[in-house]
């Protein structure tokens, strides 16, 4: 099992997007050392423009995670997330993305840039890109068509058959592999299944390290389906898609929300084509998973989010229980 930093459990969290940032806001207050491994397949908005113009990995998901883990004043968070609305060339750009771009140019290395900005923001834990290469996410749809670009995939109105990376032989970051090797637990999600989570696991060396790790591997399932990605998906369908993409089972535990969602909220989401992810316990058991079904949602500005504190408590409790069991087995 993983090494300790003092008495702290080492937790590796893999993903991207809003879901991951929400979770990390709660997890950073738990007695754990966090390493966040973040997707670099984004190609939309400010991130996509910087990626094309400066030939650098897209900074958007990294920026969100740095901000979530930062131990700074609320004003600094507003600065990091500030998006320019006017200005030739500036409009649409996010200031945090520009800071990462500047740090990348100054240091000449994206990983160093992330580490330096982490120091400036007093980040709790480490933030690492899954790869130092700019990866393009590709999707093969059920009708056989191929869609290029993470931002374009959910917009097609077609069902996704599979996603894959270009280049397919992307090299994982060595620090990310070491963090996985030393982990006491590996958390996957929450986040967009095809466009935030799978781009990390499709980095072959990275997934090999996850599979080889003896740490418990927990999947935090999304609360709601995502239009254009997971329409009609149950919790088990999310897991099956992960398994189909990486060649077989690798998870121990699935964490799902069991709280009822108010009708008003359901109506709001239904207008956008989203519905609650059904917790199909029987099928999850057939997949050999330990199921943690608890009320795990909070409401943030009218939107459903994972209750970061509640999820963090579940995660820490699961890791400690696992360690106690192992200790008893050894004795």
Question: How would you characterize this protein structure?
Answer:
By secondary structure, the chain is α/β, with parallel strands linked by helices. It folds into two domains: 9-39 and 131-330, 3-Layer(aba) Sandwich (Rossmann fold), CATH 3.40.50; 42-129, no CATH class. It is 42% helix and 18% strand. The chain has 13 helices and twelve strands. The chain has helices at 17-27, 45-54, 60-69, 74-81, 95-107, 110-120, 174-181, 193-201, 204-212, 235-246, 263-271, 281-286, 308-330, and strands spanning 9-15, 32-38, 126-129, 136-141, 146-148, 160-166, 185-188, 217-220, 253-257, 290-294, 297-300, 303-306. The strands form three sheets. A seven-stranded parallel beta sheet has the order 3-2-1-7-8-9-10, sandwiched between helices. It has a three-stranded antiparallel beta sheet with strand order 5-4-6, with helices on one face. A two-stranded antiparallel ribbon has the order 11-12. α1 (17-27) runs parallel beside α3 (60-69). Residues 1-5 have low confidence and may be disordered.
Throw out a few tags for this protein.
12 strands; alpha/beta; seven-stranded parallel β-sheet; globular; three-stranded antiparallel β-sheet; 18% strand; disordered N terminus; 331 residues; Rossmann fold; 13 helices
